[in-house]
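worker-3 :: picked uracil phosphoribosyltransferase
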Amino acid sequence: MASLPAHIGAAPGNLPPNVCQLPRTGQLAALLTGLRNKETSRGAFVFYADRVNRLLVEEGLNHLPVLEKGLEYQGVDFEGKICGVSIMRAGESMEAGLRECCRAVRIGKILIQRDEETAQAKLFYAKLPDDIANRYCLLLDPMLATGGSAIKAIEVLLDHGVPQERIIFLNLVSCPEGLKAMYDAYPQVKIVTAWVDEALNEHKYIVPGLGDFGDRYFTSS
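worker-3 :: tokens ->
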């Protein structure tokens, strides 16, 4: 297998123990390169994002517990019911990838925005399956910067009876600061990320990042 350049192939060290990063393959690096390029058209951006989303969902499903199932063939099945919960609006871009892997999966939505006065994440809307407390939840949001929105979303899930250990957070691009904040707040929540970037800058933006994901995915240029 061809190796990546050292500065691309080397994943950041000392990640929290609840973090699983996708292998830094040439395919994944190429997809992220397309996503980061500001000249990438919206159609191409959506294509690249959907490819990575599918990889994330498939890896996320690998972390769900299974039970033995079968008679002549000793197989397995997922231990419990699954649902997706997207953090609007960027997280909605990941719903199609989840539905491709889990037919007829239930999906909830959470809208969280930053309060301009307090700079804290504030819940504006939540619509979740009635039986979410009995499900494993795949929480969807493509970007993890400070971790404020994801932490608030997890708080909402906990308030609805979902245990930490039943939550798996899926995201495309994260940074060490956000991952640490998530671990400090909810260490039992599993995180599956496609790529860990270098850091946050003074404006709390991910470096190098890829811009406003929601705008690039949903808005025609």
